[in-house]
Design goal:
Elements (H helix, E strand, L loop, with lengths): L8 H15 L5 H28 L7 H21 L4 H11 L4 H7 L2
Helix pairs in contact: 1-3, 2-3
């Protein structure tokens, strides 16, 4: 078994989200998202994606801390949605690994 220190932050967060879904502790924002359903989760993903784009855009100097913060929020909300539909982060990683060495254009063209 891997120790928490050896795991990536993303893997640890995914495991925590899965734990929250199973245990449903009171006072958990993650549980509130699960209870809100896909409409609430999807709205949060859209909101966080917009905030990330806003933080990264514009003609002003880039605020890397703001971009980092918004990216983390987006990834968290994505993990909640994925968990709610039974798609583990490991499935996403496997899909990404399968795409290595394949052109993005070729991969897109091969989709049904």
């Amino acid at each position: 078994m891997t120790t928490p220190a050896a795991e990536s932050a993303l893997a640890r967060l995914a495991a925590l989200v899965e734990h929250r879904q199973q245990e449903r502790p009171g006072g958990s924002y993650t549980v509130e998202l699960f209870d809100g359903g896909h409409t609430v989760m999807s709205s949060k993903i859209i909101e966080e994606a917009y905030e990330l784009i806003e933080a990264a855009g514009g003609d002003e100097p880039v605020d890397r801390m703001a971009i980092t913060h918004e990216a983390a929020d987006l990834v968290y909300h994505l993990l909640v949605l994925l968990t709610s539909v039974g798609v583990s982060w490991q499935f996403v990683e496997r899909e990404l690994m399968e795409r290595f060495g394949t052109s993005g254009l070729a991969e897109k063209a091969a989709r049904p």
